[in-house]
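Weekly modeling sync, notes
Attendees: AB, CL, MP (scribe)

Item 1: holo prediction request
CL wants a bound-state model with NAP before deciding which constructs to order. AB pointed out that an apo prediction alone won't tell us much about the pocket. Agreed to run with the ligand included and paste results into these notes for async review.

Input as submitted:
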Amino acid sequence: MKKTAMVTAGSSHTGLEISKKFASEGYNLIITSRNKDKSQNAVDEIQKTYPGTKVFSVQIELTSVESIKTAFSKIKEEFKAIDVFVANAAHLGVDLDIYNTTEDDFDAVFDTNVKGTFFCCREAARLMKNGGTIVTLGSVQSKGAVEGRTVYGASKAALSALTKYLAYDLAPLNIRANCVISGAIHTTRWDNLDPKDLEKRRENYLTGRESTTEEVANAVYYLASPLSSSVTGTEIVVDSGLLTSILPYANRKVKNHDDFLCKE
Ligand SMILES: NC(=O)c1ccc[n+]([C@@H]2O[C@H](COP(=O)([O-])OP(=O)(O)OC[C@H]3O[C@@H](n4cnc5c(N)ncnc54)[C@H](OP(=O)(O)O)[C@@H]3O)[C@@H](O)[C@H]2O)c1
């Protein structure tokens, strides 16, 4: 019997790629979005590429526990049980720092990324009747600071801690929980960047480029699938080496690699 994976914000950007990865591996899907047109487009695209996949879309507003409970009661009617829950949706909290964040801004970020994710994970776990896996999407911005991501980074640090507690609390139900920590993911937002800015950004990455959505989806799939059966309560970092290099990589003195490499 096909397994079922649920991906929040599974109709665009990284979430859509994660949804497609699970469909390609033979899973049925539940994708959430707040936008009906966006999710219908994703359902159509996935079903066209992977015929035979059941794709159910449902609206969830993560800041509302009532919205979460309503969505999960619909999911329960449709699927009875689920196997995988991917907490991908997030308030990106762009340009919110100590100087400009209002109480409403702060609550919007934490209610989405921490409170909403907590209650979604709880409802999802209640449907994992045969055990299951939870994967959360964390960020390097919870490990170190960059401009304008103060509230977002703090919320992702809380999410990392929450993931460990999920692993601890849910182990008796045979449910594993892990986090994928991403650096920069190339979504369609990058298409609007000035090529000069793009080049400058890429100087920060040891790999010379940001991660693709496929690379993040592969890490999520690994943690969600039996490939990682004994892995729980931990993190996989997919960040092009951002956390490893303290200074911009381009500032590193270039050595003569020709003398180092074996000649034959
Ligand atoms: N992009 C990056 O460079 C990057 C780097 C590190 C980590 N991450 C993490 O990776 C994940 C995916 O990133 P992304 O850039 O691909 O995200 P994204 O899809 O561009 O944006 C997040 C999505 O979350 C949903 N969302 C936001 N607020 C919500 C709310 N209150 N209730 C329900 N859904 C809500 C929205 O989807 P709908 O409009 O469909 O509802 C929104 O489009 C996120 O967790 C992000 O924090 C991303």
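Recorded for review: The chain has one domain: 4-190+210-245.
Action items: CL to compare against the apo run; MP to circulate these notes.
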